[in-house]
Amino acid sequence: MLFVRLGALCNNACVFCAQAQERAVGAGPLSEERVAAVISDAASRGEPLAFVGGEPTLHDPLASWIAAARRAGVPRIVLQTNARRLTYASYARELQAAGLSAIDVSLLGSSAAMHDYHTGTPGAFSQTVQGMRQARAAGVVVVASCVMTRSNFRHLADIVRVAHAAGASSIRFRFAARAGRVLQAPDRIVPHPALVAPYLKLARTQARRLRLDALLLGSASDPRQPFVDFLADEAEHPVQHPDGSGFVPPIVGLEQLAGKPRPAVTERRVRERRTGAELSKILPTFFDPASGER
Q1: For residue 268, is it within any domain?
Q2: Residues in CB range of 236: below 8 A, 6 or more apart
Q3: How far apart are CA 103 and CA 60, in angstroms?
Q4: What stretches of 8-140 adopt beta strand conformation (E)?
Q5: What distance in Å separates the CA atoms of residue 180 and residue 14, rounded to the nearest whole number?
Q6: How far apart, in whole angstroms, are the C-alpha atoms of residue 115 and residue 147?
Q7: Is residue 271 part of a domain?
């Protein structure tokens, strides 16, 4: 697949944005001549074409570029988008009529609070979900993409459900690339793969139930690497470390997490209840902010 990289212009401000520096310096959009050249190249090779940003829907000629690619014989045209502009049904239909095959939508949470935190844009969640639905209604294939962070990895199964309800036929998970805004605080944004693995398994189980294709991108730092089907046997396709340095050994025996949470092997749970006064005697520093140990 060839990419038409339209520039960093975007109406979201994601906490993991890899193009933050380009946006800060005001990097200009791709020229009309360069767009035409990439379209011609894709047509001559018979390869699919993807319009990516920033946010491609902020470029008003997008529909005409898609139409030009279709006329040139490009077999499949994909749009990477936050889908917010597709909230307008007429716009979704316009892109479909121009020849758009599919959209790849960034879905970063299972709730407005979670998604909007990641995008830095209040109201983005409702617009993105509605945009996905409008695209699906217009006959465009919808794919959801979720960047896994420390703030959403525990909710991957819920994100699968939202993607399905919004009309997605598949969902892709990947780690944030260590670039752009991530470099400011990588440990606050990128979760350790060993922590993510059990929640990916929950997402896998949920995707199976909903008949949704689910894929894991091996390394966000190297976009040339193929997607790994983590619905397959994990011994053959384990979860890969986000920096591409190696594979994390598969975690076994975590399917139980799909049901009721269970105590650790050495943990003993009882029904005994204690009052706050009783707990303050057992854990005195826990209730004392001045101790600095809370």
Answers
A1: no
A2: none
A3: 17
A4: 49-52, 77-81, 102-106
A5: 10
A6: 11
A7: no
Q: Are 6 and 170 in contact (CB under 8 A)?
A: no
Q: In whole angstroms, what is the distance from residue 223 CA to residue 70 CA?
A: 25
Phi-psi region of 250 (alpha: psi -120 to 50; beta: other; left: phi over 0): beta
Q: What range defines the domain where residue 139 resides?
A: 2-261
Distance between CA atoms of 133 and 148, rounded to whole angstroms? 23
Q: Which of 159-163, 191-195, 213-217 holds the top average pLDDT?
A: 159-163
| 288 falls within a domain | no
Cis-peptide, bond into residue 244, ω within 30° of zero: no
The pTM assigned to this predicted structure is 0.73
pLDDT higher than threshold 80 for residue 36 = yes
* CA gap 77, 1 in Å, rounded: 9
Using alpha carbons only, what angle is made at residue 91 by residues 165 and 4, rounded to the nearest 5 degrees?
90
Cβ within 8 Å of residue 126, ≥6 positions away: 112
